[in-house]
Amino acid sequence: MGKRLREARSICCCASPRSSHRTPHAIFSWYEEDVWTEVAKFLDGKSLVMLAVTCKWFHRIMMEDSVWKYACLRDLRVPYPGNVPFKWIELYTTAFDGSHTYMFRQQEKHIDWMRIGAFLFDSPDALLTESLIESIKIPKVETMEKMVQKESFCLLNNIKTGIWIAGIFNQIVSLLPLIQSCSNMGILTAFYSTAFLFEDLQLVRCPVCDLDTCDGTMQTLDARHIELFLKEEYRSGIWDYYLVGSRNINKQADGASGGIFDLKHINDESTSDIFDYKSWVGKRMDRQPKTKITLHAVAVNTNLQENEGLQIKYHAMRAGKGGEVISIRISQQLL
């Protein structure tokens, strides 16, 4: 009489060999010694998602909020900012999915956007300036406009603290409507020349631009809170930018510079690297934008060709009337 054959047992790919000792709702700290949790610390967002879709067990581990918190802070290179109202996977997505300021509005404008990085606002006070000098003294003035005109910087309060994403974009209005309105071949040639230079990220003058009606070609240092794109009020256009102040430099400008600083950390050693201007702006004939970011500040500079001056504008966006500042811009346009 032959031996009784054993019934074959299937292997469930969704069951961890150690899962019998854990509840489905075990917190992330339970898995710190698990090899796959350690592997997750070395994966970017795309790889985490690819691993999560392989089976239910991996999905449960890889979708833990603590995994995405670690990945987000690691890839942004910032410390933990405190409690946030969104899931970390949502914050990671909005920070790394290629979104930029014109994602939802003003699609008629051509944008070249370059990501700089992330920094922290630890206090609700910001200093915005187009002059990156070593020492900034803040005098008492009657209005913000007078501060901009006289001191070349301005102050903003009620800044939303936390992680901010910084970038620089150069923009030019769509060429087609302007080309259709021009019959002079010389102007058409100038248009194509401008477009070519623009793709090289140089700041050039739009040949038919009216400063009062057209943004033309400009450089903009753009910073916004990491939660901005998750807010429906921004996506729907309810929140918009307002002008904080502006001024003209009616003489040759060697460079277009801008800086955004957490006022609380303006004298920090790390922030002083930005004021070491010559160490990072590049050689005089180098026309490519150069950027510098520290833990609590960000700055940009583009060396300029011969020009007649600059128009500088400071813009901010608040979360509703009287709300916190959630986005800041410093734009510079050739006169």
Automatic annotation (TrEMBL):
Q: Which GO terms describe its biological process?
A: reproductive system development
One GO term describing the cellular component: nucleus
Q: Which InterPro entries match?
A: F-box-like_dom_sf (IPR036047)
Where does the source fall among the domains of life? Answer: Eukaryota
- Name of this protein: Uncharacterized protein
Upper classification of the source organism reads: Eukaryota, Viridiplantae, Streptophyta, Embryophyta, Tracheophyta
